[in-house]
Write a structure and sequence with these properties.
alpha/beta, Rossmann fold, seven-stranded mixed beta sheet, three-stranded antiparallel beta sheet, 12 helices, 36% helix, disordered C terminus, binds S-adenosylmethionine
Length: 383
């Protein structure tokens, strides 16, 4: 096989540019330029972007590029569903449609609620169809790659060991995303389990209080259930026991409350594990909240250069392996979430090529990217 991924159709292979979505016409392919072939000196053959302005290239293998192409195909269908909803709402009034689209772009970029309400977007903003369109365009890649990387790390520690018998028994495995929204983390689960545990059949459920995510989640082939985090009762809501849960970008904002921690700790007794994916490296209070209720917290990222809680596994009365530096893993999406601010000896999870993995450094300078000497500082609100 061509090591540079011959046969993979890249959406666009032009060099990185600051192509702000503000100028992008709605008809343009929403993933144009998100995946491209890497410059010749790079060790991995493809680069992709998680960020809106395509400033920070990450690297991946041909297999990673193929996964991304499939993700784009899924997400394009969701954008089409959203576009037809907007079209209906605007009764073919082009000016009204443009207003919805640009309001969505504005909400996505400005995050007006982040200062006052300490949430990225308010529920009213999540409900905005233009914001949902932007969310699907930009969060799909980040959520997919982060969940896939989290699953590779969790798998290496035996978190999915029970799936071998589920596959043999041809048993359905149920995975619920708590506050799952459109559910791109579940698309990573589907692709990962299909690739690594091909015998299992999956029931993937996005649980979210915001009913208007239903069309997107169902467009991705997921089940969607309107559900309030405050109520718990995950298995009841899903219609049966849960094998695995995911809390992707919801733990700090919506789960670090006594009432939620109470039911979460109780229900974890019947769930093999919950993958907890965050942007915050320091979640001491949140971890203590669940640990004080008998939950074990397994950290998937290295801790020897400072606390890093961005990828965790919560479980009860299960034994998984702790992190070990003995066998660095070959990651499909190296440096996800970005760890370039750690010294190279601290990075436990390298790319297949073992070298520069792209992304960015804490000081704001890009790595393994478009060859610029420096880049603007990382935007801390980009999530
Ligand atoms: C940052 S988004 C995360 C969505 C998805 N998990 C992801 O990673 O892209 C937060 C989600 O939590 C949902 N949410 C907020 N409050 C909730 C609640 N009380 N119960 C359930 N979902 C809630 C929002 O509607 C939104 O979809």
């Amino acid at each position: 096989m061509d090591p540079r991924g011959a046969g993979i159709r890249t959406v666009m292979s032009a060099p990185a540019q600051d192509t702000s979505s503000r100028q992008a016409p709605a008809s343009q392919d929403v993933f144009a330029g998100v995946l491209r072939r890497a410059p010749p000196a790079q060790q991995l053959p493809f680069q992709y972007f998680q960020d809106r302005n395509k400033r920070w290239p990450f690297s991946t293998s041909a297999a990673g590029a193929e996964l991304l192409q499939r993700l784009f195909a899924d997400a394009r269908k969701v954008v089409e569903i959203i576009d037809s909803t907007i079209q209906q709402q605007c009764a073919a009034d082009d000016a009204a449609r443009e207003r919805v689209l640009s309001a969505g772009v504005e909400l996505y970029a400005r995050k007006p609620s982040i200062k006052n309400a300490d949430v990225t977007w308010s529920q009213e903003e999540y409900r905005h169809i233009g914001l949902q369109r932007e969310y699907v365009k930009f969060k799909s890649v980040q959520r997919f790659t982060e969940t896939w990387a989290c699953m590779e790390r969790a798998d290496a520690r035996g978190v999915f060991a029970s799936l071998a018998s589920a596959a043999q028994q041809k048993r359905e495995v149920r995975v619920a995303s708590l506050g799952g929204g459109p559910g791109f983390e579940l698309i990573a689960v589907r692709e990962y389990f299909n690739a690594k545990y091909p015998g299992v059949t999956l029931d993937l459920v996005s649980l979210d209080v915001e009913e208007s995510w239903r069309a997107s989640a169902e467009g991705l082939g997921l089940r969607f259930i309107q559900w309030d985090m405050k109520d718990g009762g995950v298995a009841r809501a899903c219609g049966g026991a849960i094998d695995f849960a995911i809390a992707s970008y919801v733990f700090k904002m919506y789960m670090c409350e006594n009432d939620v921690a109470d039911w979460f700790a109780r229900e974890l007794a019947d769930i093999t594990a919950c993958l907890v994916i965050n942007r915050d490296e320091k979640l001491q209070q949140g971890c203590e909240l669940v640990q004080s209720r008998g939950v074990d917290v397994l950290k998937l990222l290295r801790q020897d250069n400072g606390r890093d809680d961005r990828q965790l596994v919560f479980s009860r009365d299960r034994t998984f392996e702790s992190w070990t530096s003995a066998t660095p893993m070959a990651m499909t999406f190296p440096n996800v979430p970005y760890e370039e601010h750690k010294t190279s000896s601290d990075r436990g999870h390298r790319g297949g090529g073992g070298g520069a993995a792209g992304g960015w450094r804490r000081d704001g300078r890009s790595q393994g990217g478009a060859g610029r000497p420096s880049a603007p500082p990382r935007d801390p609100s980009r999530w």
